[in-house]
Amino acid sequence: MSIKIDYYEILEVSRTVSSGDLKKAYRKQAMRYHPDRNQGDETAEQKFKEINEAYDVLKDDQKRAAYDRYGHDAFEGGMGGMGGGFSGFGAGGLGDIFDQMFGDMMGGRRGGARRTGADIQVQVEISLTEAYSGINKDVEIQTRITCETCHGTGSADPSGSTTTCATCHGAGKVRAQQGFFLVERMCPTCHGSGRTVQNPCKTCHGSGTEAKKETISVDIPAGVEDGTRIRMAGKGEAGGDGVQPGDLYVHVAVMSHEIFQRDGANIYCRVPLRMTQAALGTEVEVPVIDGTRTKVRIPSGTQTGETFRLRGKGFSVLRSSARGDMYINVGVETPHHLTKRQRELLEEFETEAGDDHTKANPESSGFFAKVRDFFEGR
């Protein structure tokens, strides 16, 4: 049985990617692996097929919602993974699946479940240091609140008299054909109640809600990772009389840092050293993500790529008392623009080493010895 790769990974995008950025990523990947540019390369051809399959699903809002909820299982069953049979979800059938996928967004599910207002999605950018310490952010959202004129009844008449909805005839639901799907959703006229007001409120026009900008305080915990989604129950849009408000989903984007790079709970910092520091050994002071400094002893003979570990100097792990580590990656820098005297000193150093550099430079000596043996063997 073949293993399906995550569609988002195939296109190298996050799960919160916008439709515009999704299209850009698809074009970039498709151009890179197009068969005309990789003639005879079967791997590139297979990759190109995967890219098109992934984009075909993610560009469609309904298919993407199904994939986000059920993964590849949503498209198994005889249609080549491109919007297929929806097998494996029990005897409820396609209608139940769409009720599960879109029930919350459309204001509830079949079977008398409570109706809800629309959910709100918002993205918040924070710095790496804010992700380390945690932060409380004020987020401005465009939402709908309970109408202050009619107090959510939708009626200008204090009695709030209603009549049967003419659109759904009291069912609270309507059906629509979308391609080969028959989708059942909440009635857009009565919002699932099956009733409409006889004398609509002049402020909200009978909806029971009105548009408003609000500022919501979001508590972002320490150790949060890029792409984390925070759910704030009941902070979404109001839905009118007798309808529970939706939820607010805050997508956290952690910006890159000029000094530190993060990998899970661990932090990496590249420290360049002068050639003399690496050769003679030294002690350097490096910054820590918590805003402090610490000293790291560099032994003599340190090479580029060597790593020094600072325990417990990384990120905290969500829902855990564990903490990551900080790693110092060393890069030895060769000097540029030597003065005459510096060049003389280096030439003296080279002369002093003589023909045998094995002790001073074992790696390069070993490499060129292998090269010599290679040519002699030929």
TrEMBL record:
A GO term from the CC aspect: cytoplasm
Domain J: 6-71
Cofactor(s) the record lists: Zn(2+)
Secretion signal, residue range per the UniProt entry: none
Gene3D superfamilies per UniProt: DnaJ domain (1.10.287.110), Heat shock protein DnaJ, cysteine-rich domain (2.10.230.10), Urease metallochaperone UreE, N-terminal domain (2.60.260.20)
Residue span(s) of domain CR-type: 134-213
Textual note on the cofactor: Binds 2 Zn(2+) ions per monomer.
Chain ranges of zinc fingers (CR-type): 134-213
One Pfam match: DnaJ_C
Recorded GO MF terms: ATP binding; heat shock protein binding; unfolded protein binding; zinc ion binding
Binding site for Zn(2+) 2: C165, C168, C187, C190
Residue spans crossing the bilayer: none
Matching SMART domains: DnaJ
GO biological process: DNA replication; protein refolding; response to heat
Subunit structure: Homodimer.
Chain's role: Participates actively in the response to hyperosmotic and heat shock by preventing the aggregation of stress-denatured proteins and by disaggregating proteins, also in an autonomous, DnaK-independent fashion. Unfolded proteins bind initially to DnaJ; upon interaction with the DnaJ-bound protein, DnaK hydrolyzes its bound ATP, resulting in the formation of a stable complex. GrpE releases ADP from DnaK; ATP binding to DnaK triggers the release of the substrate protein, thus completing the reaction cycle.
UniProt similarity note: Belongs to the DnaJ family.
Domains (record comment): The J domain is necessary and sufficient to stimulate DnaK ATPase activity. Zinc center 1 plays an important role in the autonomous, DnaK-independent chaperone activity of DnaJ. Zinc center 2 is essential for interaction with DnaK and for DnaJ activity.
The name this protein goes by in its record: Chaperone protein DnaJ
Species the sequence originates in: Swingsia samuiensis
Organism lineage string: Bacteria, Pseudomonadati, Pseudomonadota, Alphaproteobacteria, Acetobacterales
Gene encoding the protein: dnaJ
